[in-house]
Description:
Its cofactor is FMN; FAD. The protein is of the alpha+beta class.
Amino acid sequence: VSLLKVGWYNAVLQPAFHLPYPDDTLAFVVLSTPSMFDKALKPFVNKERLKIIRDPVDQCISHHLLRVKEKFPDQRVDVMFDYEMLPSRKPKFLAQTAAHVAGAAYYYQRKDVKFDPWGKKKIFGVCIHPKYGGWFAIRGLLLFPDIQVPFLEQPSPVDCVSTEEKRIELLEQFNFHWQDGRYRDIIEVKERYSDEQKAYFATPPAERFRLLGLSQ
């Protein structure tokens, strides 16, 4: 987890995407590391085998973050998940922006490249973690509406893809060759997904149940 103030997030986004909390409200952005698959997902699936499982990863993340919420019975804790949408079909929060302003991972975007080679093509940005490269995911946001932290100082994310050439390579790989996952290794990483985990995420969602030994 990395902590942030809601104001840092709202300051870099258009009003339509603002979180409806005062600027000094405390929040935490939650990442999953490569070991999540073995340490959280597989035990969760084993334990929940007799219940209905619709999306194993989303339900596992939800289970664990709601358990965190239970640890603070005297506090209001609002939880937003990366997969949740508003009625307008906009995401409840922009996960990569939250990770960047919290200093958790650097959100590389088209504007980070001085000499843009893509013309009119739409280019999506991607977060890179200084330890895990692209082998991680942003899973949720925990908000504590009753806790105000005006004194919190904003950290800068680690700019680990610092050359123009590497940034172009990263955005090229992410936008046009994301299936092969090469963008995840744009830097030297300390840990990456296991072969089993790679196979799971490379499998179409409807077929993942079979990999986990579940019936749909």
